[in-house]
Task: structure prediction
Amino acid sequence: MDQLDNIQNLIYVIRGQRVMLDYDLARIYQVETAQLKRQVRRNMERFEGDDFMFELSHEEFLRCQIGTSSWGGGRYGVFAFTEIGVAMLSGVLKSKVAVEANRRIMRAFVCFRHLAELPLAATYIDLKKQIEGLRSEMLAILADQNDINEMTSAQLDAISTALAELQSASRAADTIYPQRPVGFAPPANTETP
Result:
């Protein structure tokens, strides 16, 4: 299973196709990249068309590299092999190692395809339903909160109005009925002998 995971990590999506790069394939087939490319160029009629193999542009190569800065070749760029291109490689590289490696690679492509098609579609539909449910719940909560805010605002306005009325009534009462001072007051104009 680890070999399958390792191979799946070497499958990239470039130009809308799942591909493996020539130097990764050469490492799996236990041959030099130059030897793999030589065999491909000698049998180019097997790889005609972008659905089998294509050469990466420099930008495409850089996008699929992590921590690698060398541009994968001199005169020829990096070849990207599609699933059927990798299958075609089995007819070009005929060693026992290449045949066994090709089996593992084909299994990785099939597994990758199954992973990409089945669970993600169901997961996507599930997630979409969950997101819609959360969205409607959030909208309901925000609407309730808006109603609460409006009611609270109306209540605060009523309290403010009542306080203003109480203050104006208190001032009016003070002018009509002056209050006597509270506490001890000395008697007014008393003569002492």
User: Anything to note?
Assistant: The first strand starts at residue 12 and ends at 14. The radius of gyration is 41 Å. Residues 2-116 form one domain.
